[in-house]
């Protein structure tokens, strides 16, 4: 494998895709992706004393897609 191919492969592995099924990855690739996610989380984390820190922020998010499995209509009596 050439240097360029190796670098391209590493860039592909280090890319985070929200649609990617992480259950299908090998252990090393999964470890690398989790490390990247952890680093991103830590960079965005606001701690007490940081500018803009707010305790117990609660937000409502718009529904992206329907979740029929979670609707009350589909519940059956046991």
TrEMBL record:
<dbReference type="InterPro" id="IPR029412">
    <property type="entry name" value="CEP19"/>
</dbReference>
<dbReference type="GO" id="GO:0034454">
    <property type="term" value="P:microtubule anchoring at centrosome"/>
</dbReference>
<keyword id="KW-0969">Cilium</keyword>
<comment type="similarity">
    <text>Belongs to the CEP19 family.</text>
</comment>
<dbReference type="GO" id="GO:0036064">
    <property type="term" value="C:ciliary basal body"/>
</dbReference>
<keyword id="KW-0966">Cell projection</keyword>
<dbReference type="Pfam" id="PF14933">
    <property type="entry name" value="CEP19"/>
</dbReference>
<keyword id="KW-0206">Cytoskeleton</keyword>
<keyword id="KW-0963">Cytoplasm</keyword>
<dbReference type="GO" id="GO:0097712">
    <property type="term" value="P:vesicle targeting, trans-Golgi to periciliary membrane compartment"/>
</dbReference>
<keyword id="KW-0970">Cilium biogenesis/degradation</keyword>
<dbReference type="GO" id="GO:0005814">
    <property type="term" value="C:centriole"/>
</dbReference>
<protein>
    <recommendedName>
        <fullName>Centrosomal protein of 19 kDa</fullName>
    </recommendedName>
</protein>
<dbReference type="GO" id="GO:0005813">
    <property type="term" value="C:centrosome"/>
</dbReference>
<dbReference type="GO" id="GO:0000922">
    <property type="term" value="C:spindle pole"/>
</dbReference>
